[in-house]
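Sample pair:
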Amino acid sequence: MRKYIFEVMCYYYFKQKRSFKHVNCAGYMLFSMWDNLEEWEKMIDLNIKGTLYGIAAVLPYMKKQKQGQIVNVGSIAGHAVGEGHGVYSATKYAMRAITESLRKEMSVKHNIQAVLVSPGVIATNWQSTVTDQDVKTVLGDLEKVAIDVKYVAETIGFVVNKPANVMINDIIVAPTAQAW
């Protein structure tokens, strides 16, 4: 995974000759109880390592330019933990720590912004990836309150279109009817 991410980012940089904005938004949401080790590894590999590799791929270019913006798409699960998604929440809490650390190390010294956008329940196919029957029971009809993914995209657009001297640190976008 790391090699692929670096190759894609290097290609983009050399083609565009710049790298001002980068959005890390890939992730697995494999809600499961604590006894599903295989699903843990998939989430940790993509949600944490994928984010770190994406940052590592663009950071040298942004530092050289003395500007840039990295948006990490986390989850409301990184702010509130519920039954059946402890490991997923842990990966999203990690994204909060990664973003905060990046912000503290890069914003003032290198003019590189680090932003966390945390969506709540979004209308995607996420519930079809849940294989654990106990978790399906816990989640119930949560998809009925889901909001369209366009609102997440609009939120990211709002964040990245601010002037370089204005930074939105953290933002949550979620359905009004989402209880957690």
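The chain has one domain: 2-173.
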